[in-house]
Design a protein that fits this description.
alpha+beta, Glucose Permease (Domain IIA), three-stranded antiparallel beta sheet, 14 strands
Length: 238
């Protein structure tokens, strides 16, 4: 830890609450803590099935393996580069193009990444910046690969502003199977690029809205990794 975080921990009064929460969400084993209950129940069910059903327990173990792989959350060596936007989610790019940013009411470059049930579902900050505002909306659970999922499904949006003044909107969207969008970032908090800030349970999507002069570095159909793949270059000036 460096800077104000190290100072906060060294303070005799103890670290502030926000720092404790950040440490909790950044430090976890290979299985995301959001899945501990699901993984535990799946393994217990498979164990009981093995005791009473013997070979008939194989489907239960298959389900347990699926649950474990869904909630896996491997460490990432985050890409460090100036004036770029990284993928906030693992998955496949389904949208790259001009669009209206409904959260900041502006023209924007929109890049959307669809996560299927075999992708890692932790979400990471696409850049370093301050959370200026956060919005949560209840909604439907349409297939997240559809464009209308951006405006009709359950979703949580963050307005991020970089130190030089770039505004980026990052939107977590629930999918056909997903029923819970989890976001831990709060207004006024400063996120580091690649920092884990949320999770979406099962198939879902993340939309990124950028300044219209940003230059996309991915295309539709391309596979991306959160915190690693560069989605776009920010414009020369904010």
């Amino acid at each position: 830890m460096i800077g104000d975080e190290a100072a906060a921990i060294a303070h005799p009064g103890g670290p502030p609450v926000w720092l404790v929460l950040r440490a909790m969400r950044d430090t976890h084993p290979l299985i995301a803590r959001e899945g501990w209950l699901h993984v535990g129940l799946a393994i217990v069910a498979a164990g009981l099935a093995t005791r009473f059903l013997h070979w008939g327990a194989l489907p239960f173990w298959a389900i347990a393996v699926f649950v474990v792989q869904f909630f896996r959350d491997p460490h990432r060596a985050v890409t460090q580069a100036a004036d770029v936007v990284l993928a906030a989610a693992d998955g496949r790019v389904v949208v790259v193009g001009r669009a209206h940013d409904p959260w900041l009411d502006r023209d924007a470059l929109k890049i959307s990444v669809f996560m299927n049930v075999f992708n890692v579902h932790s979400n990471r900050s696409p850049l370093s910046g301050e959370v200026r505002q956060a919005w949560y909306h209840r909604g439907r659970f349409l297939n997240a690969a559809l464009d209308k999922a951006s405006v009709e499904n359950e979703r949580n949006a963050l307005w991020l502003r970089t130190p030089r003044g770039d505004d980026v909107t990052c939107v977590q969207i629930a999918g056909l199977i997903a029923r819970r969008v989890l976001c831990y970032a709060q207004e006024g908090e400063r996120l580091r690029v690649g920092e884990r800030y949320g999770f979406i349970r099962f198939g879902s999507r993340v939309d990124i809205y950028l300044h219209p002069d940003a230059r996309a570095r991915v295309s539709v159909g391309e596979k991306v990794d959160a915190g690693i793949t560069i989605l776009a270059d920010l414009p020369a000036s904010a």
